[in-house]
Write a structure and sequence with these properties.
The structure holds two protein chains of two kinds.
Chain A (H helix, E strand, L loop, with lengths): L3 E5 L5 E6 L8 H13 L1 H4 L3 E3 L4 E7 L2 E7 L5 H19 L4 H6 L1 H11 E2 L2 E2 L4 H7 L5 H10 L29 E15 L5 E15 L6 E5 L7 E4 L5 H7 L1 E4 L4 E10 L7 E10 L2 E10 L7 E9 L4 E8 L3 E4 L4 E7 L8 E8 L11 E9 L8 E6 L6 E17 L1
Parallel strand pairs in A: 8-23
Antiparallel strand pairs in A: 1-2, 1-5, 3-4, 4-5, 6-7, 8-9, 9-13, 10-12, 10-22, 11-13, 14-15, 15-20, 16-19, 16-21, 17-20, 18-19, 21-23
Chain B lengths: L2 H19 L4 H5 L6 H5 L4 H16 L8 H6 L6 H14 L4 H4 L3 H8 L4 H13 L6 H11 L5 H16 L6 H12 L4 H14 L5 H13 L5 H19 L1 E2 L3 H7 L4 H6 L1 H4 L13 H14 L1 H9 L13 E2 L5 H10 L8 H14 L9 H8 L16 H17 L4 H18 L6 H20 L5 H9 L7 H13 L6 H16 L5 H17 L4 H17 L4 H13 L1 H5 L12 H13 L20 H5 L24 H12 L15 H16 L5 H4 L1 H4 L3 H4 L2 E4 L3 H8 L14 H10 L8 H7 L11 H4 L4 E5 L7 E11 L7 E9 L5 E8 H8 L9 H4 L14 E4 L4 E8 L8 E7 L2 E7 L7 E3 L4 H10 L5 E8 L1 H9 L7 H18 L3 E8 L11 E8 L5 E9 L6 E9 L2 H16 L5
Parallel strand pairs in B: 1-2
Antiparallel strand pairs in B: 3-14, 4-5, 5-6, 6-9, 7-8, 7-10, 10-11, 12-15, 13-17, 14-15, 15-16, 16-17
Classes of the chains: A alpha+beta, B alpha+beta.
Organism (chain A): Durio zibethinus
Protein name (chain A): AP-3 complex subunit mu isoform X1
Family (chain A): Belongs to the adaptor complexes medium subunit family.
């Protein structure tokens, strides 16, 4: 089980330590950790489990903050990592993002949360709903109140009822004048297009996000028109397994507020909404770049926030790139970023220019990979369709809303 | 333009952040001690107390020690404000162990809070009370936990479950059975949340008491989907262990499929297609896999250490899974229900849950169902295995490209169907590479090329005949490939596959001529490879080609003999001799050398002609450990790693025995002779073992009445103190060890303190009142006996560094010395013995570090060691330069002390030995036993240190010891006193320990036993400190069994440096079980 949790700032400063068991962990382990991560660089940072001379370390980095947990005994490593991720998520939600200042400013809340989330190295209460009832998140009202009255207690005096219920994710008995439930399909398209323009991989990683404000203890059933297209699924703990196994129905008692009901994957899609055609020709120490972007299969809704990014090869001395639409920026780390926005009706956006190679190089023999970003509101490109959402007991004044959104995930075009 | 605007904007943004920080605790974190904290703590306002406590918390967060405020903080525990309470608890938990006496002041408040109507208050009080971990209040905590385990609030019951491991950490044996009883109650709870926490408690408190699970098995399975995710992870593991212990492995699973019979072989192949994509299952397509899966499943069950160490024993006790240890997954309900209840968990949001569920299926599910775990596991990774590697090759990052090429090679090895595509791709790449290579893109391109050829090489190795054309293409491109390593590899292929197919043999003449032509311009490694290839070709040649080959070979050898590099010259001489029979002619004449030609030919055949066995490229280490375990990732057994229980080790009867009696029975049964792994009820829990060991001893010696046996519950804290022991120690030994002078005292037993023994005897009747007072008294009741001559008999083991056969008659042995380096504590001293076994004088012998030597290699003056180059990091050289031995006459022996810094306590160090100007690579293997130095201390200090290194710093293993039997048999002719049997055992044990590790014998405890043949209770303590870190390491050996039989030893190591301690323990067990060959 975990012995200690440290929160490190992006400069390696230990902002917080929380000892969890009787076996104290000296914070010198953080110095070791930081030294290693400086000397070994990215390969170290991508290792979630590290065996230090004295402890096994789990690291999770979110928004520049490193969450470091130590143990000396066998335990499922994924449990440590998942827990740290949960801590990071909860803190981020409480504090409205993570950074060094916000953690230092609210260190008492962080301590209180950690104390509630883990007991003796084993997770205790990790359900955000319950936590919110036990420890009030900081907000403007409470801040002002604390300044005015000098009383700043954010610790609840009573135990949230949900701790004992069989649906621990749900706050006990909320009451709403307007009952609303919104279901969003948020999809990310992962695609790889190879040098010959062939779609090598195209799949959708999607999430069903629900925002529910329903009184009492609602029991919902969500069904899809075409559940058979789903390749893989993962569910929020509130989803009952039986109805899914037998009829592919999502039957659940939702937590209050926003949550991720399910994530899924749809594989082997046949087409992408836009095309990107890069052309790189090089000779005599120069390389001509020409990239064309356009709509391929019109999804029926506007495609916006189109961006294109690529890393210039290290052997390039200078680059002169212009576009007929949108803006081109070359960042200091040799990343070229072209933000297109929407594709105009009258012309196809193109990026042209030349790269000057290092002096002794004739031709370019390494080629960059283009990362594409886009967003389409109102369409789930996987084709997944929500059939209906039923409530067992329909409250008065119920509003149900459905939306869909697709954006690019790891969308890569190789040149 | 308007600089003042910029300034305003800046200050505005500053102001806005200030506004946002108002009302937060920012100022408390930034300047926690800008006001005096003490008066605030004594304030009567809660808000001021809060502020003070927050300031303290800020100081804790920043790593300051503010334990001096403890008394004032403790007072506030009685506050009615929950916020103050919470903050006080946070502070208390951080410092209670440092200030145990003051922490006691808070107990009354906790007791009061435990009766509070607010469940939150009750839960917090319980959490904190158990969390401050004071031995004194353990009985109170136990009562509180027992009460809270029946609390109406689920949250409080959950906290009760979490409090159990805290209580267990205190290691008070008298509470064990009560703790286990509460675990049982909580496992039976109807709330899933409580069951999850109870499962976690079970896993850390009593993981072997699987009978507790048996009673609720079905219920636990059914409740599993509703348990919280964290509980699910633990509970799945427990249920898996239970099913294996209860029913054994499943016949249809992958684990067993290959062990049972070969009859399933054909069936297996048919399922290959399905498994082709799975990482784990790909092994099924190989040929050596039945052995392999066998190994994996055994490792899962026995643990890799046991598995590996067993295979190295001379007397291999084979552990066979017999038919009775299998169950059928189709007919066994327990197996079915587990698989059924874990399969929906593959859809869990929490990847740890998915992996835990997947590992159940991996071990238990019928083969054909295993594939259902693949997709969820891949989904976690959010990537598809279908993406091609081809495009990566042109990635700007060339290191990455090289890795990609290597990956392609590995892919092909696993997916035979892809071979052709990949090979074609690689060939194209090679062609492209040597084109682009022209305009010097540096080392990295070369790396890609070499990697590509290496990948092709490994592909060809799998099935040479079908890749004939590939080899030919490579050979054709030889002219254009410039990178030496790549050339060398292709040339190697020519030699290796010289007799393959039809076309290659025909090409050989041309190729060899070409090679001979460009020989002089080649680099070192290519030259060596050309020579090798030429002799390989020569060996395989027949008919008219032979003559050509001979000519080419002789020409090559002549060239090589004049080469600048001595390695090439050496190789040439060697090959010339070796091939002499071929060169002269294939007649029956005698060779010029003493050896008959036939033999030479055989030797040559053996060296060059042998079919190479495929070396398994991929490391299989990670399969030793259970999937999803930490050990699997760090590639060594993390402390607390447990393999699966032995199949069917849990008997159905165990389920019906109530816990209390169960643990007693267990203790008794274990001493019947199992080695601590036999029964699932967990005799390897060493605490238990020693407790019952002393329990039995007490009943023998406790003449004062039956009461002693009964109140064993209260006396366990100090096993050592309560036992009627005589302590024997040899204080002089440590220093004796170091200076090597042996003590002349031959008096074996010297009672130094008769009075102490008497006083102990007097105390005996009074000991009927158990408790703390007794512990302090009994400690003094020891007699000291010195074993004088152990030090003198210590003979460090000697290892061979260089065989005279390999070293031109120079024999080099080494043994680890107990000397301590005066240069740096990182250095280990090794005594090296040089002996000249040849008939000629050997000159200029020296040992240098391989790494530093490499740089000097080209300069051809390796015997001169540049000291500055040896000074690597930490300013401590890997090898302190050794004084050169100018010459060694035949038969002469000399020795040198070598000071070496090993890079790791397990990895060998490569050295180069120079003699007569030749370089011989040798490997120096480390012995962890000499990475420590003796740390003399007396028993009290030892006990004190030991008490600080409990819990996870303590590791135990058992083994059997037989050395003493021989000793006893030898002496049986003499009329020795029976008591001396113990001494003989002590001596042989101590001798064994001191000859294999650099330790200091602290004390020997001897039982005053009525049964004179019973050595149980004999205990030796050794101490040492780790050379590199100066962390103390304590070793305790407890003996169990009859004097004349093999003894069961339990070896305990207490050390703060976990990995080192574990490795040291393993080493000790290994050498203790080794047989001595006198």
């Amino acid at each position: 089980m975990l012995q200690c949790i440290f929160l490190l700032s992006d400069s390696g400063e230990v902002m917080l330590e929380k000892q969890l068991t009787g076996h104290r962990v000296d914070r010198s382990i953080c110095d070791w950790f930081w030294d290693q991560s400086i000397s070994q660089g990215d390969s170290f940072k991508s290792q979630p489990v590290i065996a230090s001379p004295t402890h096994y370390l789990f690291q999770v980095v979110q928004e520049g903050i490193t969450f470091l947990a130590c143990t000396q005994v066998e335990m499922p490593p994924l449990m440590g990592i998942e827990f740290l991720c949960r801590v990071a998520d909860v803190l981020s939600e409480y504090l409205g993002g993570l950074n060094e200042d916000v953690i230092k400013d609210n260190f008492v809340i962080v301590y209180e949360l950690l104390d509630e989330m883990i007991d003796n190295g084993f997770p205790l209460t990790t359900e955000p709903n319950i936590l919110r009832e036990m420890i009030a998140p900081p907000n403007i009202v409470s801040k002002v109140l604390s300044v005015v009255t000098g009383n700043s207690s954010n610790v609840s005096d009573t135990l949230p009822g949900a701790t004992g219920s069989c649906v621990p994710w749900r706050a006990a008995d909320p009451k709403y004048a307007n009952n609303e439930v919104y279901v969003d399909l948020v999809e990310e398209m992962d695609a790889v297009i190879n040098r010959d323009g062939v779609l090598v991989k195209c799949e959708i990683y999607g999430e069903v996000q629900v925002n529910s404000h329903l009184s009492g203890l609602p029991d919902l059933t969500l069904s899809f028109a075409n559940p058979s297209i789903l390749d893989d699924v993962r569910f929020h703990p509130c989803v009952r397994f039986r109805p899914w196994e037998s009829h592919q129905l999502l039957s659940f008692v939702p937590p209050d507020g926003e949550f991720k009901l399910m994530s899924y994957r749809v594989k082997k899609l046949k087409s992408t909404p836009i095309y990107v055609k890069p052309q790189l020709t090089s000779d005599a120490g120069k390389c001509r770049v020409n990239v064309l972007v356009g709509i391929k299969n019109d999804p029926g809704k506007t495609i916006d926030s189109i961006t294109l990014q690529f890393q210039l090869p290290p052997c390039i001395l200078s680059a002169d790139l212009t576009s007929n639409h949108g803006t081109v920026n070359i960042l200091s780390n040799k990343i070229c970023s072209w933000s297109i926005g929407r594709i105009p009706k009258d012309k196809a956006p193109s990026l042209t220019g030349t790269l000057v190679l290092e002096t002794e190089l004739e031709r370019l023999h390494v080629f960059p990979t283009f990362r594409v970003g886009f967003r389409i509101m109102g369409v789930a490109l996987s084709g997944l369709q929500i059939d209906k959402l039923d409530l067992k007991t329909v409250p008065n004044r119920l509003y149900k809303g459905f939306r869909a959104l697709t954006r690019a995930g790891e969308f890569e075009v190789r040149s | 333009m308007f600089p003042q605007f910029g300034a305003t904007a800046e200050s505005l943004s500053k102001a806005s952040t200030m506004v946002f920080r108002i009302g937060t605790d920012a100022h408390l974190y930034d300047d926690p001690d800008d006001v005096s904290i003490a008066p605030l703590l004594d304030s009567k306002f809660d808000s001021e107390k809060c502020e003070a406590l927050k300031r303290l918390l800020a100081l804790i967060a920043q790593g300051f020690d503010v334990s001096n405020f403890f008394p004032q903080v403790v007072k506030n525990v009685a506050s009615q404000s929950l916020e103050v309470k919470k903050l006080v608890y946070l502070y208390l938990l951080h410092y209670a162990e440092k200030r145990p006496n003051e922490a006691l002041l808070s107990i009354n408040c906790f007791q009061k809070d435990l009766g509070d109507p607010n469940p939150l208050v009750r839960a917090w009080a319980l959490r904190t009370m158990a969390g401050i971990r004071l031995h004194v209040i353990a009985p109170l905590v136990l009562v509180a936990v027992g009460k809270c385990a029946r609390d109406p609030s689920v949250y409080v019951r959950k906290c009760a479950a979490n409090a159990l491991p805290k209580l267990h950490d205190l290691r008070q044996e008298e509470h064990t059975s009560s703790i286990e009883e509460i675990v049982g109650i909580l496992l039976n709870d109807h709330s899933p949340a409580v069951v999850g926490a109870a499962a976690a408690a079970f896993a850390s408190v009593c993981p072997y008491n699987l009978s507790l699970i048996g009673r609720n098995y079905r219920k636990l399975c059914e409740i599993l989907p509703d348990v919280e995710e964290w509980g699910q992870i633990v509970l799945i593991g427990i249920l898996l262990r239970y099913v294996i212990a209860r029913h054994g492995l499943v016949k249809e699973s992958i684990m067993c499929s290959l062990q049972c019979t070969d009859s399933s072989h054909s069936e297996k192949n048919s399922s290959d297609v399905d498994f082709g994509l799975v990482k784990e299952s790909r092994d099924m397509s190989g040929t050596c896999d039945s052995e392999f899966v066998n190994m994996v499943s055994r490792c899962y069950i026995e643990g890799p250490d046991e598995y590996l160490s067993r295979s190295s024993y001379a007397n291999r006790v084979s552990f066979e899974l017999n038919g009775a240890q299998f169950t059928s997954g189709k007919s066994n309900d327990d197996v079915k229900i587990l698989l059924c209840c874990t399969s929906p968990l593959l859809w869990s949001n929490n990847s740890a849950v998915v992996l835990a569920a997947a590992s159940v299926h991996w071990v238990m599910a019928p083969k054909e169902d295993v594939k259902r775990i693949i997709k969820p596991l891949l989904f976690i990774l959010r990537s598809s295995n279908a993406s091609k590697y081809v495009d990566y090759i042109r990635d700007p990052d060339r290191r990455f490209a090289a890795d990609t090429v290597a990956a392609i090679g590995q892919c092909v090895q696993r997916l035979p169907k892809m071979t052709h595509i990949c090979v074609d791709g690689l060939l194209a790449l090679i062609r492209k590479e040597f084109l682009t290579n022209d305009f010097g893109s540096g080392d990295q391109e070369a790396g890609v090329l070499v990697q590509a050829i290496m990948s092709i090489k490994s592909i060809i190795k799998q099935d040479p005949p079908s890749h004939e054309k590939v080899i030919i293409q490579l050979v054709r491109s030889l002219d254009s490939i410039k990178v030496p390593a790549a050339r060398a590899m292709i040339i190697w292929m020519v030699g290796e596959y010289s007799s393959l197919g039809v076309i290659i043999p025909r090409m050989l003449t041309t190729v060899l001529k070409y090679l001979a032509w460009c020989f002089t311009s080649e680099s070192l490694e290519t030259k060596l490879q050309i020579l090798n290839t030429a002799s390989k070709v020569l060996l395989g040649a027949t008919g008219e080609d032979l003559w050509t080959f001979k000519k080419v070979f002789s020409y090559l050898v002549e060239l090589a003999e004049c080469d600048l590099n001595y390695d090439v010259r050496d190789r040439a001489h060697f090959l010339k001799k070796l091939q002499s029979c071929n060169l002269v002619s294939r007649g029956p004449e005698e060779g010029t050398n003493g050896l008959p030609e036939k033999d030479l030919h055989v030797v040559a055949e053996y060296i060059f002609g042998r079919q190479r066995r495929d070396v398994k490229a991929e490391s299989i280490n990670y399969r030793f450990y259970l999937p999803g375990s930490l050990s699997q990732i760090v590639l060594h057994a993390a402390p607390g790693y447990e393999p699966l229980p032995k199949p069917c080790s849990l008997l159905p009867d165990d389920l019906n025995v109530p816990e209390g009696t169960c643990s007693i029975k267990k203790g008794a049964a274990d001493y019947g002779g199992t080695d601590g792994y036999g029964t699932s009820s967990g005799s390897s829990d060493d605490e238990e073992e020693s407790a019952s060991a002393y329990g039995s001893q007490r009943s023998i010696t406790g003449s004062s009445g039956g009461s002693r046996g009964d109140d064993s519950e209260f006396t366990s804290e100090g096993n050592d103190n309560v036992d009627p022991l005589i302590q024997i120690s040899d204080i002089g030994n440590a220093s004796e060890n170091e200076n090597g002078v042996s003590q002349s005292s031959t008096n074996l037993v010297e009672l130094m303190s008769n009075r102490a023994l008497e006083s102990w005897l007097d105390e005996q009747p009074g000991s009927s009142n158990p408790g703390i007072s007794e512990q302090s008294k009994v400690r003094k009741s020891s007699a000291r006996i010195s074993i004088g001559d152990v030090g003198r008999r210590v003979k460090p083991k000697s290892y061979s560094l260089l065989d005279p056969a390999n070293g031109n008659g120079l024999k080099v042995d080494y043994s680890f010395s107990s000397e301590i380096s005066s240069i740096s504590h990182l250095l280990v001293c090794i005594e090296v013995f040089f002996k000249n076994c040849s008939s000629e004088t050997v000159t200029e012998i020296t040992l240098v570090d391989e790494e530093s030597n490499r740089a000097l290699d080209s300069a051809d003056q390796a015997s001169v060691v540049d000291e500055s180059s040896l000074l690597s990091y930490d300013n401590v050289p890997t090898l302190v330069p050794m004084e050169e031995i100018a010459s060694l006459e035949p038969g002469q022996t000399t020795s040198r002390i070598l000071q070496v810094r090993f890079h790791h306590h397990l990895l060998p160090l490569k050295l180069a030995l120079f003699c007569d100007g030749k370089k011989l690579p040798v490997k120096l293997r480390p012995d962890i036993g000499y990475f420590v130095k003796p740390l003399p201390m007396d028993v009290e200090v030892f006990m004190d240190k030991e008490s600080h290194l409990r819990g996870m710093f303590e590791y135990t293993r058992s083994c059997t010891f037989t050395d003493h039997i021989e000793e006893l048999n030898k002496e049986s002719g003499d009329s020795l006193l029976i008591k001396d049997k113990f001494l003989a055992i002590c001596e042989s044990l101590a001798l064994k320990m001191l000859s294999n590790a650099n330790l200091c014998l602290v004390s020997v405890d001897m039982p005053v036993a009525t049964n004179l043949d019973d050595a149980s209770g004999l205990r030796l303590r050794f101490s040492c400190e780790i050379l590199s870190s100066l962390i103390p390491c304590l070793i305790t050996i407890t003996v169990e069994g009859k004097c004349s039989d093999p003894l069961n030893l339990s070896i305990k190591v207490n050390c703060e440096q976990t990995v080192f301690g574990l490795n040291l323990l393993n080493r000790i067990v290994n050498f203790l079980v080794e047989c001595v060959l006198f």
